[in-house]
Each structure stands twice: as C-alpha cells, then as structure tokens.
Amino acid sequence: MYLPEEYGMMEAQRLEEQNRVGGSSKRAGDELEQENAKKQKVDDNQEAAKMKELMKIIPDEDEVAVDDIPLATKPPSIVDWKIVKEGKISYFQIIRADGSSKRYSAFIQMLKSFDRKDLETLWKLVKAKHGYTRPEEGYERVLWGDLKTMFEHHVEDAVWRNVRESKVLVWKLFDSYGVHFVRFQNLHVFMLVEKRYPRTPATITDMLNKKLQADHWNEMCY
C-alpha cells in the first residue's frame, strides 16, 4: 500500500513526541524517587539524632574487671555448672567440655565472656536441674531467676510487680550478645533485645530519662 511522504513525516514526528514525553515522565519519576529518598534519609538522620540524645556512650567498665575472650579462641561448650564457696564468698563455677572451668562472683560477669549460645546452654542446664520450681539456695535462686526472666518470662512473674514499684538506676546494653541490663532500686533485670517484656509506660519513661548506656552507637542501640 502506498503511503504519502507527508504521512511518514507525521508518524515520525508523533513517535518523536511520544519518546520526548516518555523521557520527560521517566526523568520526572526518577527525580521524584530521588527526592523521596533524600527526604527519607533526612527523616532517618533526624530520628537517629533524637535517639542518640537518649543515649550515653560510656566505657564498658563494671564493678569487677573480667577478661574478654576473643571469638577466635572461644572455649568449648558449657556442659555443667555449680555453686562453690570460698569462706563467706560464693561463686558460679562454669564447666566446659574440655574440662576447663571458670568462676564468676556475679551473673553480669558471665556476660563478659559468654555469647548467646552459652546463655541458652546454661539456661537449659539450670532448667534441667530445677525445672520451673524456684530453688531455695541463694545463688542458685538468683541464677535461675535471671535466666528465667530473660528467656521464659511471664507477665505474672513477681519481678514485674516489683519493677512497677522501683525507680530505674542504670540501663545498659551489652550489644555483643544482645542483652539489656536494668538495675532498679531493689532488683535488677536482664532482657534479650529481640523479646518483649511486660514493662509499664512509667517504667519505660523512667528508663529513657536515665538514658541507655552503651560503649558505642550501633543499629542495636537504635
């Protein structure tokens, strides 16, 4: 079929106009996407800045110095534990698969040389011995209570009733194993960062007023 030359020129102009309009729309879409990304980044930065205001970066210093164990030389798995006494002082003795053992005077000390797997293994061993019945002996009761609150807490646990009546003294993050530590006036609580715990709005506000203590800013803090 014969098409006049003018028709061919008109068709070429139409296609050129479509390409120009399409190109403009694509550029406009790209510019809008870039603008939205910039705005989101600004919003994120502002929110992160607000979160940093609620934090206090401090050296990770505790009451008792504990040697950190590099992951490359991490000891074998925990196979047993017991309470030992030296005079009037009691210790948690942690025994590992190679027969080595180490003593700790407080649960918070263990966190310095434990990882998450160690914590989970220790809770399994403690639960195998005591189940869900609270031990009577002081140090065993403390260890059982700290681990149960951390891993298998319940809204009816007595610790949460006591928390509601206590002021927050210290709020720390141990980011290497994902544990929050909160010290109140008459008790303390260890909490896994990925779990939800029955804290009241008043308690959370009190924690924020005290500021989160961490050794550096990271995503876990955020």
Overall strand count: 8
Share in β-strands = 15-25%
Mean pLDDT: 80
Biggest sheet features: 3 strands, antiparallel
Q: What letter string, H or E per element, gives the SSE order?
A: HEEEEHHHHEEEHE
Strand order of the largest sheet: 2-3-4
**Secondary-structure content class:** alpha+beta
Low-confidence stretches: 62-72
Figure out the total of helices: 6
Specify the overall morphology: elongated
Q: How is the quaternary structure best described?
A: single chain
- Rg over C-alpha atoms, rounded to the nearest angstrom: 29 Å
What is the end-to-end distance? Answer: 70 Å
Give a brief outline of the structure.
Residues 1-46 are annotated as: Disordered. The chain has a three-stranded antiparallel sheet with strand order 2-3-4, covered by helices on one side. A three-stranded antiparallel sheet has the order 5-6-7. It has a two-stranded parallel sheet with strand order 1-8.
